Structures are given as structure tokens and as C-alpha cells.
Amino acid sequence: MNDEPEQTEEKEETLFAAPPIAEQERMVEAILFASAEPVRLREMEERMPHGCDPAEALVHLRKRYEGRGVRVVKVGDAWAVRTAPDLAFLMQKETVEERKLSRAAVETLAIIAYHQPVTRAEIEEIRGVAVSRGTIDQLLEMEWIRFGRRRMTPGRPVTFVVTQEFLDQFSLESARDLPGLKELRAAGLLDSRPLPGAGSDDDEEGEEDEAQTGQSELFED
Amino acid sequence: MNDEPEQTEEKEETLFAAPPIAEQERMVEAILFASAEPVRLREMEERMPHGCDPAEALVHLRKRYEGRGVRVVKVGDAWAVRTAPDLAFLMQKETVEERKLSRAAVETLAIIAYHQPVTRAEIEEIRGVAVSRGTIDQLLEMEWIRFGRRRMTPGRPVTFVVTQEFLDQFSLESARDLPGLKELRAAGLLDSRPLPGAGSDDDEEGEEDEAQTGQSELFED
Amino acid sequence: MSDTENLFDSQTVADRLQAEALIVDVDGFEGPLDLLLTLSRSQKVDLRKISVLQLAEQYLAFVDRAKALRIELAADYLVMAAWLAFLKSRLLLPPDPEAEGPSAEDLAEHLAFQLERLQAMREAAAQLMARDRLGRDTFARGISEEVERVRKVTYSASLMDLMQAYARIRTRDEFRPYAFDRTNVFTMEEALDRMRGLIGFAGGWSELTTFLPDGWTADPKRRRSATAATFAASLEMAKQGQIELRQSDTFQPISIRKKT
């Protein structure tokens, strides 16, 4: 910037004077920004008006971008604008993908919800098949189930219970709000056909009393 | 109950305080520089740490780039970095061959921009000629126009509006910044004024029907 | 006032050339309004003050000349020509107070509005295209950095899924496939074998029920099956002429004896 007056002093050069260095800096900035590849000094010179000194403009430009979100960097013998390395994390975008829980996981979760506290052996007995470690781990990781008290039986097996997170997820005040078998049957949920959906919701409400009885059967403590 | 979540939120904020605004400015700078497409505030917010205010950071950033070789520009509800127009002469190498738009396409585009949301029948009424399907298709393909809401009139015709891409293309912050928009509106030239008289109404309706078929063609999947 | 000038007298060479060009370049025009707009420009007047009458005359003259040159005219042009001819006659004749609908002036005014609006859109389009264009005047980042997508998976299940799953488990037993219960069924073949063996020993009439096998009378299920099978077997044997059947009244016991 200090050199500017010197340049304009020379009279001969005023006719074809190179633009002031601040202007040259703008030009280099625009060229580096828009170019699809790093740009060599020679090429900048060719593209800029006669008499420009891109090397000097670059010195200024580099300084200007020091500590900024992007930097002017040398790539081989060419120049480019690049994101500051400490901000690389901004170039990631987290996308959340929602997937349906597997059938094994849903069944295991259902059994825990209806029979809690329940041991793994009991889950397996009810499901009639072994429960894989991965299924339990997944539910634990999702924080839909947690470990309950150990059962006071030989081997003192751990039990599983559902979490507050689970209740929030399914909009339940407590696991006792889950409909019982009778209610499920009344709602057509025991039908092997796929559910029609919303229609059965009305039924459920009408059968609340029955559900109560149904549940007490289920929740033998 | 209601106050509880708020309190915890406040606590969280103090624990994970948003970065200082200067740092946020760097982040916005990096995000905008890295993208060839305008970036929406929402997306910036999603990518930046919790509690950041990209809108405020943008105010600072925009000021910083005033008069520089590149500028921070607003495009609809998104932001982008673009080279200063006065430096276009440096960019000959970057210039992509412009696809020449037909006069029909240019006029149709202008009518959509100034009269949006506008139906095909309305475009035809203004131009006094049928709008060929190719013209609309071309503009849709360039992503300069898109379908707007259906008009709540008999036949529920689709409408057309201009896109963010369009604003970016013509260096417009919003459709309100279209050149001469105010004057045109003041002169009543953007009003829809039906042809006076009953006899002509029939004609119009006939036209609308035709447009209808034309439009439904557009929606073939 | 320019709109009162006789257009054909005051036509300059350039105007005439333009008029000629209209005919030659007829394909370059898109429609009636387009042509009207071009014609109105040759009047060099404010669109709001154009004489629709003159415009109509020019248009009709154009269509005539174009026809004479055997240039194919789009139906649009002819429709507009007919409409303008009508408008012209309405404008020339004194208004008919009995006539319904819009006056000729209203129609003429609307036409002027349409022309003005089209002209305004033309100018707006030109202004638009003259703006700083991306890729011509302004440029986007040349080396854009890809935003890396980090995928995070969340799992979901609905309360309905949960309840259905539970219901499925708890009622699995109820859904056993139907299997025919053979232990409690006495077949007709078995009954036939049995009766053929026994009938020889029975001298006179004996009740059908006495032919039921041992162990099939206590359990109602077994009894029902054995009775049905034995009855069916007796009918078959009667048909073959081996036995005689007798029943005193409806629902009374059935008796059989060997036919002699």
C-alpha cells in the first residue's frame, strides 16, 4: 500500500499505469476464488492488466487472509484458496437416517415392557427363541432399556426394565399403560392381518376397563 | 414443570457456550467459500456448533468483503460468495458458454418473475400467444422456475414462480428487487385485468381449458 | 398529434421497409399481440394513446398483404383480424344503446392495456437479461469443497409395532395350523368292517347303538363320530341288500337285522 504513491509518481507510466496494488489484490482474490484449479503466477499475470505484479499482490492477499476462515495457500507452484484446516469439521453434514427397529428387537422390547423386570432367560422363554446379545446391546445403547435389580434367585441374573426415554418415545406415562392382551384382541391387534391403523385407536379407548383387568393378569408381581 | 426444561437449557448453554462472534464469522466465511451454491442460514446453523448465530456473523462478514474482489451476496434466503462484477474481464477463462435463450423463453421468464405466481393461461394472455411446452420445460430444466401452489380457481391450475437459482443467476437478493418492479406495479401493469364483457369471458374460459390440458401434460410422471 | 396522422402518407422509407419486413419475417412473430405491438411501435406514440382504429387498419392490411404473398398464416392471426374488424366497425358506428356487453371503447382500451403490458414485459425482460449474470459477470467458487455427509442412524418403532409384536408372541399357540384329529374319529370303513363281522351273530332286530365299538360311547366326541360312522355304514349295507332298517317314528331308535 505504501508503494502506491511511488508508482503514480512516474509520469510516463501513468498512461499505461498498472492498477494500484490494492486493486491488483482484488483481482488476484477474484481469480483464485473463481478458478477451478490452482493458478500459477504466470497465468495470473497474463489475465491481469499489463504491468501488474501478482506476486506482490499475493503477499498482501495472503496477509489479509491470515487467521481467516479461508487461506491463500501454495499448491506446487500455483496458488489457491482453501478452507482453514481447523474448520474442516464444518465441511461435514450430519444426516440422520431413521430405520425401523428389527423384529427381534421390537419383540424383545415388547417383552421387557410388558414383563419388567425380566431376565434374559425369561425373555427367551417367552419368545421361544434365543435373544442375541446384539439385540439387547442395541436396546441398551438406544437407552430404551436398562439393567434392573438382580433377581434374588440362584445365579442372581440381571433383569431388564424400560427407561423414561422409552416411555417418552412411546408417549406412555408408565409401562402399566400398555394395553393388555384382551384389549389387544378387542382392538384387532391379535389378527394376523396387518392393522388398518387409526381405526382401531377408537376401539382401544372404549376398552380401557377391560385393559385394566388384562394388565393385572400380565403384571404378576 | 414448564420452567424446568428452560432452566436446563440455560445451563447447557453456559456449559457449551457458542464460539465468539469473530470465530463464527470465520466459520461462515469457510462455509460460503467452500460452496458454489448459495447456502441457507438453516444449513449454516446445522453445520456450525450449537448456539451459533450465522445471521449476525454474516453482517460482519458482508462488511468485511465490501469493495473486495469477491463479495458476500444474499440470494433469496441463502448466501453466497461471488466475484465482483467489475472484475468479470479477468474471468474470460471461467466463462461458460451461455445457452442462448429464445425470445419466447426470455419473455416467459420475465412474466413469471414479475407476475408470480402465474398460471400458464395468464402467461399466454400477457404474451398474446400460446406458450409452447418446450419453453416452460427449458426454464424448469434450468431450474430458473419451479411449480408454485395451485391456484384456488376452477380447474386448480398450477402456477409458476422463480427459484433461488434464478435470483443467483441475475444477482438479485429477492424477487422484490426485480428492476422496475415498483414502477410496473404503480402503473397497474402487473394487475390481472380480464377482458371486459361476457362474450370475452367465454373465450377466456376456453383458453383456460386448453391451458389445463397443457398443464396436466406437464405433470405426467 | 401523431395518432391522427395518416399513417400511409407519413410513412418513411424505414417504416415501409419495416412493414415489408413484417411480411417476410412473419415466422419470427409469435402471435397477434406481438404483431400489434410491432405495428403500434411504427406509430411512434405512447401506447396509451394509440388509435386502435389505425392499428386495426394496419393489422388488417398486413393480413391482406400476407395472404396475397401466400404466406401461411396461423389461425391466431386470422382470429385477431376478425376481432379487430369487428372492433373497427363498432368504433366507426355510433354506439347502439340497446347493445349489451362492453362498449367498443372498453374493448379498445383493454387492447391498449394488453399492448402496454406486453411492451412493459419486453422491456423488463431486456433489463433482466442485462443484469450481472452469474458465469458472465460474477463467478462462483471454482473449486467447491464437497460437504461430506456423515450418516447417523436412528432406529424407530411405534407403539403399534410394540403391541403387535407382543400380541404375536403371546398368541403364537393359538395360531397352530389346523390338523385333523384322527384319534377321536371313527371312520365309515371301520364301521363297515365292524358291522359286517357282527351282523352274522345278530339274529333279530337290534338297535344300531349296540353296534358302537367299545371305548367310543363315554366321550361325547367319540360317541358322535362312532354313531355317525355306524349309521352311514348301515345305510350302505341296506343299499347293498345285506340288512334291513327299521325306525318306529322320527327320532326313535333305529334297529337293524340281517336280511334273509
UniProtKB/TrEMBL annotation, chains A, B:
Residue segments, region Disordered: 189-221
Pfam families membership: SMC_ScpB
Keywords: Cell cycle, Cell division, Chromosome partition, Cytoplasm
InterPro entries cross-referenced by the UniProt entry: ScpB_csome_segregation, WH-like_DNA-bd_sf, WH_DNA-bd_sf
Biased composition (Acidic residues): 200-211
Bias (Polar residues) ranges: 212-221
NCBIfam families registered for this protein in UniProt: SMC-Scp complex subunit ScpB
PANTHER family the UniProt entry points to: SEGREGATION AND CONDENSATION PROTEIN B
Name recorded for this polypeptide: SMC-Scp complex subunit ScpB
From TrEMBL, chain C:
InterPro entries xref list: ScpA
Gene3D superfamilies in the cross-refs: 6.10.250.2410
One Pfam family, short name: SMC_ScpA
Organism: Thioclava sediminum
Domain of life: Bacteria
Name by which UniProt lists this protein: Segregation and condensation protein A
PANTHER family listed in its UniProt record: SEGREGATION AND CONDENSATION PROTEIN A
